[in-house]
Amino acid sequence: MRKPIIAGNWKMNKTPEEARELVAALVPAVKEADCDVVVCVPATDFAAVKEAAQGSNIHLGAQNVHFAKSGAYTGEVSAPMLCSLGVKYVVVGHSERRQYFGETDETVAQKVQAALKCGLRPIVCVGESLAQREKNLTLDHVRMQIKTIFFGVDPKDVKKIVVAYE
Q1: E strand or H helix that includes residue 39
Q2: How many CB atoms lie within 10 A of CB 55?
């Protein structure tokens, strides 16, 4: 049985000082938690959250990663960059990234591979649209997402991936 995980995605909220204060308040609240506790924060908050969580059971997570190691991808962050900052988890395939930025199951799969290669634990988001749900296509759609995303993942790495149904 895998260890349970509780992950919070802060979206585009909290300044570094606000993030530091929130994590400082979380540390005592979750110190007895019998699960992994992850806070997925905006990149601007990494340093503050890492400092505030030091010595606790709270892990630092990113909200996105680019599939390339480096290159002309203005505004993007690579897996090696995240690893160098102490990030342990990364959200990929969030419905908002799919809706607003056109991410596909194929690009999500590339991001999963990039994250695993660097030692990050991907939190892979899957789910259906309202139209798909109303047509009873949820299971078919989520199955296809998982098949596409996991295709080519080394079997030894499957246990490193967290699947989050949105």
Answers
A1: strand 36-40
A2: 6
pLDDT per residue as tens digits for the range 15-43:
999 999 999 999 999 999 999 999 999 99
Give the position of tokens 């895998």.
2
Q: Which two tokens stand for residue 125?
A: 């988001």
Total residues belonging to the chain: 166
Residues paired with residue 61 on neighbouring β-strands, in sequence order: 40, 89
State which amino acid sits at residue 78.
Answer: S
Q: How far apart are alpha carbons 126 and 96 in whole angstroms?
A: 11
* Cα gap 64→101, rounded to integer Å: 12
Classify residue 62 by burial, with Cβ atoms within 10 Å: 0-12, 13-18, 19+: buried
Half-sphere exposure of 98 (CA within 13 A, CB side): 18
What's the gap between Cα 44 and its chain centre?
Answer: 16
> Which residues form the catalytic set?
94, 166
**Which one-letter DSSP state was computed for residue 61?**
E
Report in angstroms the alpha-carbon separations of 166 from 96, 125, 129, 130, 163.
Answer: 11, 6, 10, 12, 10
pLDDT one-digit tens code per residue, 51-77: 999 999 999 999 999 999 999 999 999
